[in-house]
Amino acid sequence: MSSGYNAEPNVVPLTDILLVLLIIFMVITPMLKKGVDVKLPEAGNVITEPPEGIDTVSVRKDGTVYYNASPIDISKLNDKLLEYVEEKNQTKVFFKADQEGEYGKVVNVIKIIRDSGIEMVGIITDKKTKSSD
Asked: Which of 32, 50, 85, 120 is placed for a possible disulfide with 92 were both Cys, Cβ 3.0 to 4.6 Å?
């Protein structure tokens, strides 16, 4: 009694779809940027991304201050950093600022960071290339 029907599922189309999705995610993932988009100054010895568990403070060209990619009022930054020091028992933070930003604003944010009990401020920059010497 052969009816000619195949009762087994055909997984080839499903496999094709999964492989296409995998390739899409492999291509898109490196393009995703974490944090605030600022034009960083260049330096010789740099880190590309801060390690996990250490918070980042950023200042954009327009003077907007960010704490871990979320905008924050500069008057609340000290409280947020004090909370960070107490909760995570961490005295290190990473800092990045747009190279075209207002110098006074950058200095003011660094002062707030230091006043909140942060002992080590890591400055994030872009890697210096040969053509930019």
From this structure: 120
pLDDT tens-digit profile of 34-82?
Answer: 666 666 666 666 555 666 778 888 898 888 899 988 899 988 988 998 8
Q: Distance between CA atoms of 17 and 1, rounded to whole angstroms?
A: 35
Q: Which sequence spans correspond to the domains of the chain?
A: 42-132
Q: What is the 3 state secondary structure string of 25-54?
A: HHHHHHHCCCCCCCCCCEECCCCCCCCCCC
Rg (CA), the chain: 23
**Those residues with Cβ within 8 angstroms of residue 80's Cβ, 6 or more apart along the chain or in another chain:** 67, 72
Model-level pTM?
0.59
Q: What CATH number belongs to 42-132?
A: 3.30.420.270
Tell me whether residue 126 is exposed, middle or buried, using C-beta atoms within 10 angstroms of its C-beta: 0 to 12, 13 to 18, 19 or more: middle
Query: Collapsing DSSP states into helix, strand and coil, what is residue 21?
Result: helix
